[in-house]
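Hello Y.,

Per our agreement to keep a running log of every chain we model this quarter, I'm adding this entry. I've kept the format consistent with earlier entries: sequence first, then predicted structure.
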Amino acid sequence: MITVVGNLKGGSGKSTVTFNIAVWLAMVGETVVAYDLDPQSTLSDVSEVRAEEGCEPSIRVYRARGDIVERLTSHQGEVIADVGALDLAGMKEALGVADRVLIPVAPSQADIWSTQRFVNIVAGVEPTQKRNREVLGFINRADTHISIRESDEAEEALAHMPNLQLLQARLAQRTAFRRSFSEGLGVFELEPGGKAAEEFGSLMSLLYPKLARTKGRRKSHAREDT
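Predicted structure for the entry above:
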């Protein structure tokens, strides 16, 4: 499956999400490669940090070189691509072969407007090879204070956005995501029992339900063996 993670506006956290998904997939035993198609190259940077620190499993990240369509479709297993608006042509090529487009959305009116434009771009790119492409959105960097309603308002806007399916999962604006990313780790590696890891696990259970159930069974068996 080819999953493209993107949005037009910077600061949505797409590289952090892409990296964590790639590490999670590798940890549950899936064959996974990642593509950094954003000229800012943040995904490439964090993968280099992970390699320098000797973290396992290692994550293979390719940069945008050559025929993007040919490269994305040449792999077995899971392919996840981080796309950015600075390379609009490359973004559209990736969208054309995507089985799934995942859109992290920060809770602000500007991000909602940007997301609507991005969804319109996705809708305007014809899927290749008769792919049944999903377009999924979720709130990322959500407010953690209960009195702030901006995340609820943003989620409601996404729920009514045409051509977008809202995922009922949120990743909050937590220090653990920034800390783990700076160290080349998935948030679930840095703080396995923390709130950020729990939130990310909920997102994975929606994106990869079979794999998440398998991971849950492994944890249960591990506890029984101790």
